[in-house]
Design a protein that fits this description.
The complex is a heterotrimer of chains A (112), B (295) and C (287).
Chain A (H helix, E strand, L loop, with lengths): L1 E6 L17 E6 L4 E6 L10 H12 L3 E3 L6 H7 L5 E3 L7 H9 L7
Parallel strand pairs in A: 1-4, 4-5
Antiparallel strand pairs in A: 1-2, 2-3
Helix pairs in contact in A: 1-2
Chain B lengths: L1 E6 L7 H12 L4 E4 L8 H4 L5 E13 L9 H5 L7 E2 L2 E2 L11 H5 L5 E15 L5 E7 L6 H19 L3 E5 L6 H7 L4 E6 L3 H17 L2 E6 L6 H13 L3 E5 L5 H7 L4 H4 L2 H21 L2
Parallel strand pairs in B: 1-8, 1-9, 2-7, 2-8, 9-10, 10-11
Antiparallel strand pairs in B: 3-6, 4-5, 6-7
Helix pairs in contact in B: 5-6
Chain C lengths: L1 E5 L7 H12 L5 E5 L14 E13 L11 H5 L5 E4 L2 E4 L9 H5 L7 E13 L4 E8 L7 H14 L5 E5 L6 H7 L4 E6 L3 H16 L3 E9 L5 H9 L3 E6 L2 H8 L9 H15 L6
Parallel strand pairs in C: 1-8, 1-9, 2-7, 2-8, 9-10, 10-11
Antiparallel strand pairs in C: 3-6, 4-5, 6-7
Helix pairs in contact in C: 1-9, 4-5
The chains are: A alpha/beta (112), B alpha/beta (295), C alpha/beta (287).
Chain lengths: 112, 295, 287
């Protein structure tokens, strides 16, 4: 299973980024290989319009099974993600990536 | 962390005075965000110190390099916004009409057009008279795109709340039903509508409620100046019941709103005791509703 | 002649002035009032008449043609608003983000994104009396961009009313893009404010905006008597015309709340509208 986190850094102990569209990094964890890789999304700050759709496009290209984030995607991003198979879990905005993963495994995060 | 947004659809309902009162009542334990960036007035009541100021860039503007231009007119042909006037054969960009779509720069055969980032305003992180932190902004003259600035103000407020370990953010939202108010509502946990009993007030309340419904968050309503038209006040209450919106309180028409504003004071600071009491109870009720609705 | 009525701050009496002024002027002139506050159009609550025209208004949005698309990726690349995403073999257009610039449509190598109309609101025209027409445009809920509907309503007025008609525009509040769209082509702008710190603060912003646009403008003070003299001092200092002052009066607020016109019930308001009329017909000095 491939899980994507919205995060402010690139490590397991980094804080989650509660924002979806304007998240600083996307961290991709593959539980089969136990690899954690990061995608730098910081240039999103330059986008005046449609940060959510741009990040959604990136997310789609990363092809994950699960997205774990804080606030949940905005309207435009939502209408894109609806068309993908990715399951979205929210409420992890004030955790570290590791805590968010534990919370997800223990079914503590609400499904969006 | 919970975010409470106060909006009104119609202007002049007392939204900012009421929002500032709630911020004042909560003292240091809250972060304040003024998202009415088009008419940002809350600072007149809460006296922020403009401690940190940051430039805000949004959107792009096409610029034509006159030395490189070969006067072919391609840019003018493709522009859908009439933003490229020609005078004496010289092509220029009208910054007020340019939408920053970049189409002209893509068709220019000699790459004479570049898009520059547009400085549209400033936002501030300040300490206000209650010692709480407030995030607010100022849109540049004739600037565009207040929706993104609203998002910026809200995001900064969230960062501040996280850093200062504050549980509550109160947001003075934008008027209307367009892009700025959508940005104001995004990510909120509870919405307070401020209405006034006039035909316009009821009309705008209904319209903004249609928008709020899309967000599926808890909603309550305060009726200000309720004695101006008791008949319409009743109509508003019926509407609230039909729409399952919590009626929070009603406030009488009172010149002391204007008086305190004129003195640079929040109404609960030097207004009359009656209004102060209603606002105190309203705020307690809103906090309770916010915690119930979003858990 | 085109006149816009604007205010930096909402709720200062913009609609009250627009509706009363248009009814008052129509006693002697041909007048059309257009409510361009398309997010919250309220003038129609005060002007009752017969509906003569109702038109759905559209904006142009690209529509993906799956059969001809070669997935070149050009559309995604050229869209500055991130309104187009590519999900595997599918292209998705997000209408709310689209600014109708046509770049994706016209630069697509296989012409697979033809521009097609999408509903954004409704324009209605009412005949109030022999001299007064009222036009209202109303944005659909969920539509975020007011400017395209304002532009179309402006074009509608230009096309249907000649130069002998006075054209009044009720502008949205604030000082950003929708207000600029309303005011950029008018001859004069009437700014309405109230004599309070909020009123003054927002007046200064709209005054600076009007100066940027090089507009001829004057100020009407509403709820005169509340607050303080700072608005008057500011106007005097800046050499701005104070055209009229409408007194603070609970009776006016009550009439307004019930959707009534005021100038035919409160003589002092009629006198002030007379002053506004002289301002409209005066030779512009330019600001």
């Amino acid at each position: 299973m491939r899980i994507v986190f919205t995060a402010k850094g690139t490590e397991w102990d980094s804080d989650m980024d509660p924002r979806f569209g304007r998240t600083q990094y996307l961290l991709i964890y593959d539980d089969k290989t136990d690899d954690l890789v990061s995608f730098d999304n910081r240039e999103i700050d330059k986008e005046a319009h449609g940060a959510g759709t741009k990040t959604s496009q990136r997310l789609f290209d990363l092809n994950p099974d699960v997205l774990i984030t804080g606030n949940g995607p905005g309207g435009n991003a939502q209408s894109i993600l609806e068309r993908t198979k990715v399951e979205i879990y929210t409420g992890a905005g004030e955790m570290t990536v590791r805590e968010a993963y534990e919370a997800f495994k223990n079914s503590k995060l609400p499904k969006y | 962390m919970k975010e409470i947004v106060v909006i009104s659809g119609k202007g002049g309902t007392g939204k900012t005075s009421i929002t500032a009162s709630f911020a004042y009542l909560e003292g240091e334990n809250i972060v304040v965000a003024d998202c009415d960036v088009d008419a940002a007035d809350m600072h007149l009541l809460l006296q922020p110190d403009f401690k940190i100021a940051k430039d805000f860039y949004s959107g792009e503007l096409a610029v034509i390099d006159q030395d490189a231009c070969i006067y072919c007119g391609e840019c003018k042909t493709v522009c859908r916004f009439d933003a490229i006037p020609v005078e004496n054969g010289i092509y220029t960009v009208d910054p007020i009409s340019c939408e920053g779509c970049g189409y002209c720069s893509r068709v220019c055969p000699v790459d004479a057009i570049t898009n520059i980032d547009l400085l549209v305003g400033e936002y501030y992180i300040s300490t206000i008279k209650t010692k709480a932190t407030m995030v607010h902004a100022r849109l540049g003259i004739a600037a565009d795109n207040s929706g993104k600035l609203v998002a910026q103000v809200k995001n900064s407020a969230r960062e501040v709340a996280e850093k200062e370990k504050k549980e509550l953010i109160i947001v003075d939202g934008s008027p209307g039903i367009g892009c700025p108010v959508v940005s104001s509502l995004t990510g909120a946990h509870y919405v307070v509508l401020v209405a006034e009993p006039s035909l316009s007030g009821l009309h705008d309340l209904k319209r903004v409620n249609e928008l709020v419904k899309i967000f599926k968050i808890g909603v309550g309503c305060i009726i200000n100046k309720s004695d101006i038209n008791p008949g319409i006040t009743e109509d508003i209450k019926t509407f609230l019941k039909d729409e399952d919106i919590t009626f929070i309180s009603s406030l009488p028409y009172d010149e002391s709103f204007t008086e305190s504003m004129t003195n640079g004071k929040v109404i609960v600071e030097n207004g009359n005791e009656n209004i102060k009491e209603i606002l105190k109870n309203s705020w307690e009720k809103i906090k309770e509703l916010t915690n119930n609705k979003s858990e | 002649m085109k006149i816009a009525i604007a205010s930096g701050k909402g709720g200062t009496g913009k609609t009250t002035l627009a509706t009363n002024l248009s009814a008052f002027l129509s006693e002697s002139e041909k007048v059309v009032l257009a409510d361009l506050d398309v997010e919250e159009p309220n003038s129609g609550l005060f002007l009752k008449g017969d509906l003569v025209l109702e038109e759905v208004r559209y904006k142009m949005i690209p529509k993906w043609n799956e059969d001809t698309c070669t997935l070149s990726g050009k559309c995604r690349e050229v869209c500055n608003f991130n309104a187009i995403v590519q999900l595997g073999p599918r292209i998705l257009v997000l209408p709310e983000l689209c600014h109708s610039c046509y770049a994706c449509s016209e630069l697509c190598p296989s012409s697979s994104l033809p521009m097609t109309p999408q509903r954004m609101g409704v324009l209605k025209e009412y005949k109030i009396n022999d001299n007064l027409t009222f036009v209202e445009s109303r944005l659909d809920i969920g539509q975020e961009q007011a400017v395209p509907l304002i532009m179309q309503t402006n074009d509608f007025i230009d096309l249907n009313f000649d130069n002998t008609t006075i054209k009044l525009f009720d502008s949205p509040p604030g000082a950003s893009c929708p207000v600029i769209e309303v005011t950029k082509d008018v001859d004069k702008v009437i700014l309405i404010t109230e004599p309070t710190p909020f009123g003054l603060h927002d007046l200064i912003i709209i005054v600076e905006t009007m100066r940027e646009l090089k507009k001829d403008f004057g100020v009407v003070i509403n709820r005169y008597g509340v607050g303080n003299d700072d608005v008057i001092d500011y106007c005097n200092r800046e050499g701005i015309d104070i055209i009229a002052k409408i007194s603070n009066d609970r009776h006016i607020a009550e009439l307004y709340s019930g959707g009534d016109l005021i100038y035919d019930k409160v003589p002092a308001v009629r006198d002030e509208l007379e002053r506004v009329k002289s301002y409209i017909f005066s030779e512009g000095e330019g600001m």
